[in-house]
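Sample entry was shown:
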Amino acid sequence: MAAPEPDPRSGPTSGPTSGPTSDSEPDTGPGTGPDTPPGTAPGPAPAARSGPGLGSGPRPGPDTDADSDTDADSDAPPGPEPLTVPSMSAGPDFGLRPWEMSDLPLVREAAQDPYIPLITTIPARYSDKAAEAFVRRQWDRAATGTGYPFAIVRSRDRRPVGAIGLWLRDLPQGRASIGYWMVASGRGQGVTRAALRTVTHWALHDLRVPRLQLFIEPWNTASAHVAEDVGYRREGLLRGWQQVGDERRDMAVYGLLNSDGPADGRAVAED
């Protein structure tokens, strides 16, 4: 897994391919997402294959003076635009789509994993209420322009087996992060590789993001191999980078630039 999803409650994460990666911005509080019909991303949105490049999308404005007498409604810069989460094929066997309220069984299975709840905002103790709040948080991320959260679905039976997200918090600085996790029933089938390759290609070529990055714990060789297969390059070790459970842990950072050429003889993020 690589760093998990951003949390509208709080900040980023990474981990094993059998579980989450760590560049997600973890949820740190209860979800209060919009009352959106299952399977749809809240708010108006661009075309499914389009998204924010450097000239559009979430771009925070300058800080405002809390004591200012200016009219906030008229003078404040516009906030991030709502995003539409597209549905995409990840090869013949898997697809990516927006989260739906019917995905609660996936949340239940993820909650039973020993690692996923440590590095994501999946509830450690499952309840329907907590799972519904998790799904609403995914809708809220799109509605607030934070990023694109996808459920990963197996084509043959439409069963969701994991999640992947493209997080845009640092897009104004020309970079975005990807986090992903996979439940036990979806592992060993090439799901993570297919999903990461699809989102990476889309982010680099359709959204024109200059730099993508992943954060993976050094012990997680399975996730590291997946990242390297897709073209990411290990760039260094960030000591005590992230809180995982009760301790601070190191994270290896992997990067991929829009301008990178072939890695190890393979085209970067090629479909």
